[in-house]
Design a protein that fits this description.
By secondary structure, this protein is an alpha+beta fold. The chain has helices at 91-110, 116-135, and strands at 4-10, 14-21, 23-28, 31-35, 42-55, 58-72, 75-80, 83-84. It binds adenosine-5'-triphosphate.
Length: 141
C-alpha cells in the first residue's frame, strides 16, 4: 500500500514525528482534512486540535497547537506552534492550563474593559489544553 511521509516539527522541540504513514486527519482553519498518499499540493493553517495518524494498521493521536501544514504528493510537513505525542503530555500541566484559561475567559467576560485580544488568547490556550487532555483521554467540557 502506498504511504506518505509525515514530518512534524516545532520551533522549541525540532523534530517531533517523522515516519511513513497511510493517512493523516487534521483540522485546518477551513475544516477537517484527510490526507492520503499522492494528495494534491496544499498549504494551510492548522488550529489547535487532536491530529490522527494512521500507519501500519493502527491509529495514533497527537495534540497539535496550530501552525502550518504543507502537503506535496509524497510529503506532509507540519510546522507546529507546539505538538505532543501522548507519552510527552503532562496531564496535570494541561489540566492547570485548562482551568486557568477557563477562569480568564470568565473574568474577561465579566469585566467592563473586556478585550477581544485577551479573550482570543485565553480561548486559544483553552483549545491547546483541551487537545492535550483529549489525547490523554481526560474528559473535558
Ligand atoms: P502552559 O500554560 O502550560 O505553558 P501553553 O499551551 O501555553 O501551556 P505552549 O506555549 O503551547 O504551552 O507550549 C510551550 C511548550 O511547552 C511546547 O514545547 C509544548 O510542547 C510544551 N507543553 C505545553 N503544555 C504541555 C503539557 N501539558 N505537556 C507537555 N508539554 C507541554
Amino acid at each position: 500500500m502506498a504511504t506518505i511521509k509525515l514530518e512534524i516539527v516545532s520551533p522549541r522541540r525540532g523534530e517531533i514525528f517523522s515516519q511513513d504513514i497511510d493517512m493523516l486527519i487534521v483540522r485546518s482553519t477551513a475544516g477537517e482534512l484527510g490526507i492520503l498518499p499522492k494528495h494534491a499540493r496544499l498549504l494551510t493553517e492548522l488550529i489547535p486540535h487532536v491530529g490522527r495518524i494512521k500507519a501500519n494498521g493502527t491509529e495514533n493521536q497527537i495534540a497539535i497547537s496550530g501552525g502550518f501544514m504543507e502537503v506535496t504528493p509524497d510529503l506532509i510537513t507540519i510546522l507546529a506552534d507546539a505538538a505532543e505525542l501522548p507519552d510527552n503530555i503532562d496531564v496535570d500541566r494541561a489540566k492547570a492550563a485548562y482551568t486557568r484559561a477557563q477562569d480568564r475567559i470568565t473574568a474577561f467576560k465579566n469585566s467592563p474593559k473586556e478585550s477581544d485580544i485577551d479573550i482570543k488568547r485565553a480561548e486559544a490556550a483553552l483549545a491547546r489544553a483541551k487537545a492535550r487532555l483529549l489525547v490523554k483521554n481526560v474528559p473535558v467540557s
